[in-house]
# Entry
Amino acid sequence: MSHDSSRPVCILGLGLIGGSLLRVLHDSGTPVYGYNRSAATVEAATADGYQASADLTAVLGRAADDDAVIVLAAPLFALPDLVDAVAATAPRCLLTDVVSVKEKVSAIVAERHPGGRFVGGHPMAGTSRSGWAATDPELFAGAMWMVATADQTDPEDWLTVARIARRAGAFVVPAADDAHDRAVAAISHNPHLTAAVTAAVGAGESRLALRLAAGSFRDGTRVAGTAPELQRAMLEGNATALLNTLSETIDRLTAARDALRDHGSTEVIVDDGHRARLLYEELAGSGPAPISPTPISDVQVGAPGWAEELRRQAHLGRVWTD
# Structure
């Protein structure tokens, strides 16, 4: 199995993430083509010089002939039909995805395509915009891209998916499905809920507050501008993990309210948040001179215990860079 950039990639769904991946892989010299059910999206993509079609059966037939890597890049609710189509038309192709939850995607693939080759993935990149017009070949540059890493994962398949992420410009974070879902509930899905609350409270009963709103409101509510149906699919698809982080958020806010009411102080919540933000900036290298993340070292993919060791080092904040 070849890991080089000559192996074709077939992307099912050409919205922000799928379309951006199509563009960056094409621009890097990888043979890549895509499917989207919207004729308007297909027309826009082809007008920009990319290969796209609204004929799912034909696209998957081509993928089967090419032994392409198939990328599921549609919302969670659309995956069952897509996986059914892959199982029927291109059952031997390696399958991956870019969906923001992992356990539910893995369950869909296991149910609809048992025995299929699947290595899940999730690039931590995006904007509040959606559709082909929002796509950007630089979207993944320097981003973190989780690649699912279970003990039973085929090492050759894992390397193929991980190297697609690297060609897109991302760093690879190896993780188990459940650990990923708990993590993104805390750092992605919960912020969508708090952004929605901040936006709703800020809107108030008149437009005065919104007229006065500046950086903190703008930055704190950015993700609330994402299409509601896309937000709901993401949040509700990770309900169990999100309920836990939401409960912790409510508990912390309740304690902060009580401390402000009873003692006139917000010290605990502000200090805890400030320390956490400084830790994030240290890890992310987001200061005036950003630094590259620490790479995973001394792991040969495919050697005994490779997956466990990749996961262990990822929990230390390290990334796989090949």
